[in-house]
Structures are given as structure tokens and as C-alpha cells.
Amino acid sequence: MRKTLVALAITTLAGAALAADLRVGLNPAYEPFESKTATGEIVGFDVDIANALCAQIQRKCVFVESEWDSIIPGLQAKKYDVIVSSMSITPERARVVDFTNRYYKTPSAIVVKKGTKYDGPASLKGMKIGVLKGSTQEKWALGELKPAGVNVVPYQSQNQVYLDIKAGRLDGTVADKVEVHGGFLRKPEGQDFGYVGADQYDQKYYGEGIGIALRKGQGDLKKQLNDAIATIRANGTYANIAKKYFDFDPYGQ
Amino acid sequence: MRDYYLAILNGSLLTVAVSLASLAVATLIGLLGAAAKLSGRRPLVWLATSYTTVVRGIPELLMMLLIFYGGAIGLNNLLEAFGYEEGVDLDPFIAGVLTIGFIYGAYMTETFRGAILAIPKGQMEAAWAFGMGRAQTFVRITLPQMVRYALPSFTNNWLVLIKATALVSLIGLHDMTYLAKQSSAAVREPFAFFLFTAALYLVYTSLSLWALRRLSERYSLGADKVQLL
Questions:
Q1: A165-192, pLDDT tens digit by residue?
Q2: By residue range, what is the domain housing residue B105?
Q3: pTM above the 0.80 mark?
Q4: Residues B185-200 pLDDT 10s
Q5: CB–CB of A29 and B69 under 8 A?
Q6: To the nearest 10°, the Cα dihedral for A240, A246, A248, A251?
Q7: Among A38, A65, A67, whose Cβ lies nearest the Cβ of B3?
Q8: N or C of chain A: less Cβ packing under 10 Å?
Q9: Are residues A145 and A131 in the same domain?
Q10: Is B28 helix (H, G, I), strand (E, B) or coil?
């Protein structure tokens, strides 16, 4: 009797889960993770990952666009159920929303003129390195490069950093590898520049990576999503998606 | 690239729709607010004065977030307390129009109040002496002159309102500013799309200015030659 009841409960739960769409909030202004094609379709790494996770938990992903500034209020106002929008897991955000385990953590790296010799921060002594003000890369540069005698110059936007490198006022930058690849290195003004040193993952500066945000008190959904992340990591789905966008494993260390 | 421009052009229709609908709401609230302020009844004056003071003193962005998200979160919490798990979904177009209308209604209240005060009281008293009722006096004597006095400030409010519609992207409406931002992020070419969008706003505001100037000329017929006293 008890077994039948449990079985019944499970089928009912599964049925309910199947029926409901999972509404996914995102801000499609962060190519290649989420952006809009000219025809209005939302595409990118986050979108593919969300769809793969939805397939795992047997729900249908429905994407809801939001401005970045109001993306957390939108979650709390139940405009959508989760945020899959390249959101870094930070203690400040964790106070108001729950996070799953990370689903990616792209490395940051130093970018300077090609051919620059590098065997540690001291190699860049006296150079001017631009960083985005308030970014994790700025924290890293202030913590690791500045003590070695590098001039770390903060900027309001990463694009201004690129403009000043082009103008010759800066020798390089520290930035997210995906960002610096799309915004600078693959462009004509970036062709003489390249990475030096190892990929940076240091948790002390860069935190835990990028996770899916949920409203507090959704423990079941959180567990389902964490299991689904582990599953797509294990069964090769994740690697297939990653190959479409990157030439390295974005899951990171 | 061409498709992105088309998408932005398409978004401009939403900008026009939101701004016109908001203007209608703001004008209605403005007329009611001005009537309340000039009514001389304590509670009405007090209500209208606190409305214009509070609304004109809070940034539009904060107001929008407070009403749309704060309202929805509050409502959802209330429903949850009564055992409803689903939660409500405010329609973003209606919410946006009501919010912008509510904000600009405060400015319109002051515009209309000033315009009505500019009409010499003696004219209304004369109308009453002729046996016209309050409504008739308003339609025949006050309104036509009020329009003339109100138009310059009304035009100002309208231009500011048009630009304020860019804020509706915060609550999930895809107006042309939002689409320009998405497009430039997708192609990583900011200025082309922003310049295009700026030009669209300029076309819209220029057309408005032209239309309102025609209206102003219509309502000022003869006014430059004859002093209405």
C-alpha cells in the first residue's frame, strides 16, 4: 500500500513537472553567451546549456528577456523561474537569490604586445595595464601585478581600455579571455597582441564562477538542476556545446 | 546588419504606441489634478499637492522599478499568504503606460493649473453671470484659452515623455533603445545603431514639434492682435 502511494506520488510529481515550462530569464547582450540574431532569435552558449538542462529535467525552456539592471527583481516578481545569463556567483547576490553549482568559469589572462617576454608579474614592471573598474580582473591586477611595479589603470568600460591600447596610452590589459578575444584580439587593432602567462582561475579573486540563479526556497529545482549539470558534464553534451563556441573547456578549474 | 536596423525600426512603433498612450493617461490625470488643485476643497487640494510633490521628486527610473517590480512582488507575497502559489503577471505594456502616465500626469497638473490661472477670473464670472453652468463655462471659456496658455509647457512635457519611454525596456518591453542596445552588443558595433536610434527619436520629436506648432497657431488666432482681458 505504502509503495503504491509513493509510486503514485512520484508519477503525479513527474507529470506536474512535465507539464510546466521552465521560464528562463536572460539579458541577451553578452555575445557569445547570449545575444539576439537579426531576426530576433536568442542564441548563445547559455541558451544551449539551458536547453540541455531542460531536456534533462524534462521541462521545456521558455526564454524571457530582461534588462540586466532589473534581472533579479524580475526573478523575485516571478516573471521567470531561473536566471541563466552568465551571472557570477557572488556573496552579495547570494544574500537575495540562490545559486546552483557553477556551469562555467572562463579564465582571465594578461594581453600585451606579441613577443613580450613573460616569466611572472615582474616581467611587466613599468608597463601600463588597463583594467575594468570594479571587475574581478582589477582585483587580480591590484593584488598580483601592482606589488611587482606594474601601473594598473582603471577604466569605466573595457572598450575604453581597447581604445587606449590602440592610441598607445596603454601596454595591455587583464581581461576575461572570451571578452578580450571577441572584443579585441580578433579585430584588426588587436592583431599584434596576444596572451602571456597562465590562464587565471584563482578563486581568491575570481570567485566560484557562473551559476544559475533561483528564488530562495526552491531546493527541489536547485537539486534537479545541479544533477542535470553533472549529467551533461558526464555524458558529453556539455563538451559538444562548448565546442561550438570556444577552443577550450569553459567549465574551468 | 540590415535586419538589425529593420528590427529597431519595428521597435520604434512600440515607442510611438507607448508614448501616445502615456500622453493620453498623463493629460487625463493632469486635467483631474489641476481641477483638484483649483477646487479649493481641502482634501482634494491636499491629495493633488502631495501627488505632484512626491511624483516630481522621485527619479522616473526608481518609480518604474518600484511600481512594476515592487508592486508585483508585494502582490505575489499577498497572494502567497492566502495560499495561491501561481502569482500574477502584470502586462508590461499597460504597466509601462500607466507608470509613465502617472509620472507625467504630475507635470501636466502643474502645466494645466498654471494655464487656467493665467485666464482672468472675470471671464468666468461673466460666463456665470450669463447663466452658464460650470461645465459649459469650462468648455466654452476656459478650455480654448487654457490650451493656448498650456501648449508651450505641454510641448516640453511631451518631448521629455518621449525620451522617458526608453525606460520601459526595464520592465521587459522591447522599444527601440532596448533593441539598439541588443543589436550593438550582438555585432559589437555600438555607434552605428545608437546614431540610427538617435536619428529616429529626432524625427519623431521634430514631427511632434511641427504638429504642436500648427495646433498652437490655430489656438492663437487673433490673440497677437487683440489683448484678451
A1: 989 999 999 999 988 988 899 888 899 9
A2: 19-175
A3: no
A4: 787 776 889 999 999 9
A5: no
A6: -70
A7: A38
A8: N
A9: yes
A10: helix
